[in-house]
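quick one, 943 residues, struct below
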Amino acid sequence: MKTISFKEILLYFIVLISISSFAQNKSDRELILIDKDWHFSLGHLYDTKKDFGHAEGYFSYLTKTGFGDGPAAKDFDDRAWRKLDLPHDWAVEQEFSEKGSFSHGFKTSGKGFPEKSIGWYRKKISISQSDQGKIISLKFDGVFRNSKVFFNGHFLGTEESGYNGFEYDVTAYVNYGGENTIVVRADASMEEGWFYEGSGIYRHVYLQKTNPLHVIQNGTYLTSEIQNANAEVTAEVTIENKGNFKGAIEVLQTIIDASGKEVATNTENVSAPDFYKTAKFTSKIKVNNPLLWDIDAPNLYRLLTQIKQEGRIVDRYETSFGIRTIKFDPEKGFFLNGKSIKLQGTNNHQDHAGIGTALPDELQYYRIKKLKEMGSNAYRCSHHPPTPELLDACDKLGMLVIDETRLMGINDYHLNDLRRMIERDRNHPSIFCWSVGNEEWNIEGGIVGERITNIMQGFSKSIDPTRPVTVGISSGFKSGISSVVEIMGYNYMGNGDIDAHRNEFKNQPGMGTEEGSTFATRGIYFTDDAKHYQSAYDKKPRPTFFSIEEGWKFYAARPYLAGMFIWTGFDYRGEPTPYGWPSVTSYFGMMDVCGFPKDNVFYLKSWWGTAPVLHIMPHWNWSGMEGKEIDVWVHSNCDEVELFLNKKSLGKKKMEQYGHLEWKVKYTPGTLEAIGYKNGKKILTEIQKTTGNPENIKLSVDTENPSNANVSVITVEVTDKNGLRVPTANNEISFSIKGGKILGVGNGDPTSLEKDQFIDDVTLVPITNFEEKKQAYVDNTNQSALDESNAWKEAFKDRDYKNQASAYIYRGKFELKNNLQSNSVDFFYKKIGVNESVFINGNLVNANADDPQKYHLDKAVLKEGSNVITIRTSPLQKVKEWDVMNTDPGIIRVITPSEPWKRKLFNGYAQIIIQKEESGNDVVLSASAKGLKAGVLNVNQKK
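---
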């Protein structure tokens, strides 16, 4: 008999106690990203047959619970649909057309295109038997737009706006221990904005599991007061009880710094809310010597909220936040942590080259870094609530934010959207102001706008009294909204007399919520209206509007104005003012849609930043213009700049504050050189050289890419024999990739009608003229029966299910177009009988080994034009009188392989966005073009 030592007994109890302690400290909350492996297909706006029979049932999903039909049904067969990962924007995949929407970039999607305005998404998930007793919910960050969501055939609700996050409790509908089906129908037929908005599930989706006793969605609200170098944090938490527990609970609040150290804690003993009720609890937590959140040092903390029930932690909820103070002063502008900060802002929409609105998280950081590099310190969300990841990026990188709701009004539609935005976003330290509207021309100058603003402003204050409220106003600055809004938002100096308004309302702080709207095409220095190209020199866009330089001089000279927000930081799809088709993007941006800088970026870097700047425009490749004068501008914050052409001085000039320098230079090939002086000393040199012809393709990873990222932005250039980038190159470049996939391509050309994405085309071909005839038995050998013309009738019409034949032959037709040699064709059979045999044009075909209801159709049995499918089978029998029998034989799927990925350079640049595979292998990107040496880049993304 083995003797157990005291040490072994002690070790046993230690392990037992550790396991027990772990179980007590592990909460029930899980938040699972479910972006991968969705099935997608376009439906139809009003033709229910083309919308897969949705809403054709006798009972609709609004009539009886669980009666989702068509794709909304739990067991709908979506095997033929395209497989994809989220986020996804189906609009960006479409072709361009002059019939498309001017404001939305002329894509053949949405308004006016009923066959491309409805998108269906389906996903199957497993939920464990052990999850019974938990609250199971689906969380959507945003679906554009008018989305309907179903779970296992049950209708969950509709979210009209494409910019709101929303959540549905699916606990009662879950098939525990088995398969569950999520279905989303997005209807993008109506435009919500006057700019490109994309289509589909373009933000993240999560499966959430919690204890019945839990912190609600966006259920914490943190504010802080700073006194004597210490901060008192007020932590308000809203707890919901969807269970039957009654009694005392503990609410533990712990503040953790960026290093993971606990810096303050608090515990409250409270009573649990009643069944399906919520309760708010408030704690005061002191933080000694806090590190403040600032644009230069964006220090963040985490609040860990834990709920303890009978000694066990049942919920853990984390909130990121920052400690800082904000203040607007009507005389001195804006203050952050007591320090005067001039707002150097930009307005931005949410789309990017190649990928539309479906931005991976890494692109949010990429874009904010680009703006920070330019010297910007503030971002206005134009004109809707942003994706949460953008605000995370602003928090972590130090970018102030104006967060804006979509539509002004005083009813539930408007105020509920405003509430959801504020409750979701109010813990972000980057947000310093709420905006409740923008350029509401019908109401902003009158009493209706004044009334609405007063209500929305007061409503905002009731949810978050710590931040001021603004509205972007463009009609005169004399009455209406401008007389009552807390922070005056001036949209364009040319729309009214800002100084006169300020003199009338001296206690009202103000800022320029939009300024500029200048037109520029990157790399273009002579306006060419025939080609829809605007010169990149900073000029007035209209006689009554102002250049970027004029705008900044105005705001910089007025301390009472907190700063200005340029329209826009990046070009965006749609609104191609001053042109129309075939221009498909805006011209307003300081950067193009890829983030490649236009020359105005260097003006802003000169006066918005602190580092020395010296930039010459234009490039110096002007073959054919020898001897003609070229306008040469220099952007710099040096005291003086001297310009040289081929080592001959063209004169030294003093720099005016917030200005630029100009020379008229007769073109001669060679080297244009600028030397910048500070306090009489040479500190910078910049050159523009005439290059040779393009010879090499150069690929490089942009420095703004986040480290260890799954997604990278790659710049594509061509160089001459000396390695100089050729600024006029427009070569078409083809791409291939190993170890990853390409998400999109772009080049910043506002008139480019090239594809953004190269994806295989999936076409679903219906089986038509479906007929049947009775047969005494199933016989696979008698081919003549397939060709007999007598005794055929419409399949399943007036079928007497109590007196069926022992076997049936069915036949139908399907049409195939060209490209049979390259296309892949499959038949996805839906059971209409048992022991089936399938023939294509008289040829017996075999089912796939991995799916007995899928048939790959070899090219040898197919033909262009009309094809005949025949199915022999014994009939299905009804078990119950009311059983609904399937009468759909299935669908033919045709996959047409895409062209290789390619994009033309535009004035020397193109961009490609890539994503690495989950295997973690290096991504190898290759680029080739006729007459150029190929480029290869090994993207080691683990920096």
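Confidence is low (pLDDT under 50) at residues 14-23.
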